[in-house]
Amino acid sequence: MNAAATSDSLQTLVVIGNGMVGHHCVEQLIARGALERYRIHVFGEETRRAYDRVHLSEYLNGRDAESMAMGEASLYEQEGVTLHLGEPVLDIDRRQQEVVTASGRTAYDKLVLATGSYPFVPPIAGAEGTSRLVYRTIDDLDLIREAARGARRGVVVGGGLLGLEAANALKSLNLEAHVVEFAPRLMPVQLDEAGGAALKARIESLGVGVHLSRATQDIKPGTQYRYRMRFAEGAPLETDLIVFSAGIRPQVFLARKAGLALAERGGVAIDDHCRTSDDQIYAIGECASWNGAVFGLVAPGYQMARIVAAELCGAPEQPFTGADMSTKLKLLGVDVGSIGDAHGATPGSRSYRFIDEAGSSYRRLVVSADGKRVLGAVLVGDNSYYDTLLQYAQNGIAPPADPSSLILPQGQAAPLLGVDALPAAATICSCHNVNKGAICDAIDGGCTDLAGVKACTKAASGCGGCAGLLKQVVEHELASRGVAVDKSLCEHFAYTRQELYAIVRVGGIESFEELLASHGRGHVGCEICKPAVGSILASCWNRPIQDPHLVPLQDTNDTFMANMQKNGTYSVVPRMPAGEVTPDGLIAIGAVAKKYKLYVKVTGGQRIDLFGAQLHELPSIWSELIAAGFETGHAYGKSTRTVKSCVGSTWCRYGVQDSVKMALDIEHRYKGLRAPHKLKFAVSGCTRECAEAQSKDIGVIATENGWNLYVCGNGGMRPRHAELFATDLDDATLIRYIDRLLMFYIRTADKLQRTSVWRESLEGGLEFLKQVVIDDSLGLAAELEAQMQLVVDRYECEWANAISDPEKLKRFRTFVNESGGDPDIQFVQERGQPRPAPARAAARVIPIAEEIA
C-alpha cells in the first residue's frame, strides 16, 4: 500500500481535467458513494470550475460566465473533495503513483485522465496574435471580443460544427463574417454534398461569406484590412482577425510523457472499460481513443464517465462499445441534423432525398438494402423530422412501406412516430443515457410533472436537444396512467393561453376582473396570469394600456410606457417608421435630449433611444415629442417594435421596389398591435438584403414581380432563420397574408412565445401554416382579417392618451409628496454624454446638473 492509503482506509482518486466530462465523472462518483472509498482531488487548468461548452457562443450574446457553470459549487465543497483550479498537472510519476504540479506532488491510487482536446491550428506562416485566435474556452472568447473592438471583418478557418459556431460569434460582435473551409463543402463529416450545398446557401443568405476548397498558404499585412490571407487557389481575402476552428486534437501531453500507450491516430488508447495501458489509470472524453476512434461530442464522454465511475465504485456497467454520433444543431439559426450512417456508406444501402432549392432545405434518408431499417439521415433547414428519424434508427423500428414518406413535407408525410410506439430501451437523452424506461420508472416513483422527471433522471440537462421529445414522453406516460396533464396558465385559470384568448373573444370580455369572475379562481390573480390576460385583452380590443382595468396587469415598462434602466431612470423611444425622419424631426429630438440631459443612442432597429429620463419627466418629454410629430415607439411592450428598411428603389441602384413605402405601410398598420411576444419586421428593396429581413418575425424582400414573404425568424440568444412563405406577392396580397398570420399567431401561441418557437411547435409545420393562411383551410381567413382591422381602427398613441388625462398623469411621480426627481440618481460624463455613475462611486460623484453648470 502506498502513502496515499496509510493514514486511513480511504484511497486517493485524482481526476485530471475539470471540463464537462471530468465534472460529470465527479458527479457520478459522488452519486455512487465514492466518498466512502476515496478522497477525490480534481485538477483543472482553467481558473473557472467546469462550465457548459456546448452553449459557449451564448457568452458573447450576454450570458455571464457564472451562469454557464456546471452544477452547484457545493459539489466541490464536500468533505473528501478538493478542487484545484488554475493548477495544471505537469507530470504523472507512474512509478511513485503521484501527479506533479507547480505546488508539489499528490499521490494517487487511481487516476482518471479527462484532459479533453485542444484546437488544431495548421502551421501557416504569419499566423500569430489576432490572426491566430481559437474558439475553445471562455478565455478564448474574451480574446476574440477584444480583437473585435474597432474591427470590421473576421474570418473563421474551418467550416465544421465549431467553425460555424465561431462565425455566428463574429456576427454577434457586429463583424462581417467569412468562413474558409479546406473541404469542398461545409460540415464535411456530418453532411453529404447536397446537404453541404443547402447549408451553404442558407448561411450565405444570412450575409456570411463562404469560401470552399481553400487551403491557406500564408497570412501577410493587408491593404484595406489588417491581414491578407493567400490561398493555394482563388483570390486572396483580407480581414481584421482570424479564428481557427480546423478541428481538434486529443490532449495527450501528460499521457505521452508518462509513457502510456497512444492510439495510432491520436488519443490515449483505452479498452472497453476505459482503462489505459496502466491498470490504475483511466481515460475518458476527447483525450481517449477507443478502437482507434476519438469521439468529439459530449454524450460519448458522459458515457465513458459513467462507466469509469461505476468501475471505481465496484459496480461495473456495460462496457463501452462505441457511441452514436448523431447530432441536432442550430448553426447561425439554421437547423442541421445528422443521424447514423448519414453518407450511406453501408454496403447496399439505399437513399431517399428531398430537395427544396427555393427554400434551401434538404433531407436525405438512408435505409438498408431490404428497406427494413433506417440507417441514417441528413437534415438541413428543418429539424422537426429529427426526433422521429433518430428513434427509427436507434431502435430498429421498421419504416413504412414507402420510406420516403418519412422525409416528405408534412402534408404528404407518413404520420409521425408516436411516443407510445417507442420501446422502453429507446434512448431519449443521449447525454445522460436516459431511456424511455427510466422516465417511466421516475413517473412510477412519484414524479408527476416534467420538472420532477428532469430532476430525477437529468434528462434534457445536457445539450438540451431532447427537451421536446422528453416533454412528449412525460405527458403521454402521465396521461396513460390516468394522471391529468395540467396545462393551466396558473392557479387562477385552469386554461391555456389559447383557451383564454378564445374565451375573451367569444365572450366579449374586456377586463381582468370580469374574466376572473366568470372563468377563474380567487380574487386578485398573479404575476403569471395578469400580464398574460393583459396582453390578450390588448390584442383583442386594442384599448390603451393606461386604461384603469389594464394598468394593474402590466409590468413596470408597460405601466410607465418606457423601459426602466438599471439606475432607475427610463429610456424613451419615439416611433420613426421605417427609420425615416425629417431634419426638423431630428432637430426636435436633439432639442429634447439637450433640454432633459438625455443620453442619445441610435438603435439596431433604426430608431433613436433617449436614456436617463426620470419618471416625473416622462410626460413632458412625450408632450414635446408629440408636438414635433412623433408618437410612442412601443419599445416597452410585447408588441410591434420596429420595421427596418433599406432605402429601396428610390435611391439605391440595386433596388427593385420601394421598400421604404412598404415599410411605412406595414409599420403604420401594425403599430400598437399587442402579441404574446415582441414583433420585429424588416423590408429589403432587393435580394442584397440590407435590412436583414430574413432574421425577423416578418421579413419582406422585393423581387422584380413583387414581394417575397419570410416568416417566424428571430435574433437573440437562439437565432432562427426566417422561412420563405410566399413569393412574388402584390402589395394587397402581402398585407392580407401578414394580417392572417399575425392574428393566427396571437390567437394560438402560448404566453411569451416568440413566432419562431410557435412555428416550431405547430403540428404540420410550415406547410400547415401555409394551408391556414394562404389556402384558408380552416375557414378563418375573413375572421382573422376582420380582427386585425378592428385593432388597426382602434389604434391611438398611448403617450398622447396618457398626457391628455389628469388622472393618468398622477402616476408619473417619483415621490407621492414631491414633484421632483430622485436625488440619489447621479450621472457622470462620458464621450460628451451623461451615463449612470457607478454605484460604488456614487458618494464621490458630482451630479451632472452641477457638472454641466
TrEMBL record:
Pfam families: Fer2_BFD, NIR_SIR, NIR_SIR_ferr, Pyr_redox_2, Rubredoxin_C. Pathway: Nitrogen metabolism; nitrate reduction (assimilation). CDD domains: NirB_Fer2_BFD-like_1, NirB_Fer2_BFD-like_2. Siroheme binds at residue 690. It comes from the Bacteria. Residues 565-627 form the Nitrite/Sulfite reductase ferredoxin-like domain. One of its GO terms (molecular function) is metal ion binding. GO terms for biological process: nitrate assimilation. InterPro entries: BFD-like_2Fe2S-bd_dom, BFD-like_2Fe2S-bd_dom_sf, FAD/NAD-bd_sf, FAD/NAD-binding_dom, FAD/NAD-linked_Rdtase_dimer_sf, NasD-like, NiRdtase/SiRdtase_haem-b_fer, Nit/Sulf_reduc_fer-like_dom_sf. Coiled coil: none annotated. Residues 13-292 form the FAD/NAD(P)-binding domain. Keywords: 2Fe-2S, 4Fe-4S, FAD, Flavoprotein, Heme, Iron, Iron-sulfur, Metal-binding, Nitrate assimilation, Oxidoreductase. Residues 326-394 form the NADH-rubredoxin oxidoreductase C-terminal domain. Residues 428-475 form the BFD-like [2Fe-2S]-binding domain. Residues 637-764 form the Nitrite/sulphite reductase 4Fe-4S domain. [4Fe-4S] cluster binds at residues 646, 652, 686, 690. NCBIfam families: nitri_red_nirB, PRK14989.1. Belongs to the nitrite and sulfite reductase 4Fe-4S domain family. This is Nitrite reductase [NAD(P)H] large subunit.
